[in-house]
Amino acid sequence: MTIKPVVKQIIAMGGGGFSMEPENLLLDKYILELSNKTNPKICFLPTASGDSDRYIVRFYSSFINLPCIPSHLSLFNPPTADLKSFIFEKDIIYVGGGNEKSLMALWKEWGLDNILREAWENGVILSGLSAGSICWFEQGVTDSIPGELTVLECLGFLKGSNCPHYDGEPQRKPSYHQLLSKGLINPGYAADDGVGLHFIGDKLDKIISSRPQAKAYQLEIIGNNVKETILEPIYLGNNL
């Protein structure tokens, strides 16, 4: 019997999906299709929102109409003591937005950071937007602390840094550039709202979008200057 190699996948979205575009679920449908299952088991992690009931309801309201088996994991009301088995039963993990600093603290306290890494290494698809995007990288540009945008150390499943909402929040771009120019953050990727960065292993494989004009960006330091390269996504609406 031939054993298929494990494919490690992460879809990091700058914004969009059911929580920002409830009438435009192109990104969410893309994530579901990656499982190659008729009804994949997808689990929503609303940790960054403090496990907001409203956020959880919005998730079910959208995914109940899609070909999948939706569930969620609340760390404030956990369904089981065996979180590893609970996560490993899923095909897809979908992490919501909110406070990244609080998310990281809670995940580490519960050991969820290590569970998610092991799940990813065993083929469970990881995805998310905003806080649920930057969590997978080494570092992220976050508004978790009131005031100026800051750098947060994240899980490091993916190399470099990440900045979501690049076109949706006016301080994102200048803050990312400033942090890079001062050497406070590693080079990495930014994504507009509606854009997903699809990584296979630790390599960016594809860029997809739910909005025709949305873009992704690669940022690096060349000499003493920040170089920003536009990365054109595949608009998923063309596939309808």
UniProtKB/TrEMBL annotation:
Stored SUPFAM superfamilies: Class I glutamine amidotransferase-like
Annotated keywords: Hydrolase, Protease, Serine protease
CDD domains with a match to the protein in the record: GAT1_Peptidase_E
Source organism, top-level taxon: Bacteria
PANTHER family: ALPHA-ASPARTYL DIPEPTIDASE (PTHR20842:SF0), PROTEASE S51 ALPHA-ASPARTYL DIPEPTIDASE (PTHR20842)
Family of the protein in this entry: Belongs to the peptidase S51 family.
Protein name: Peptidase E
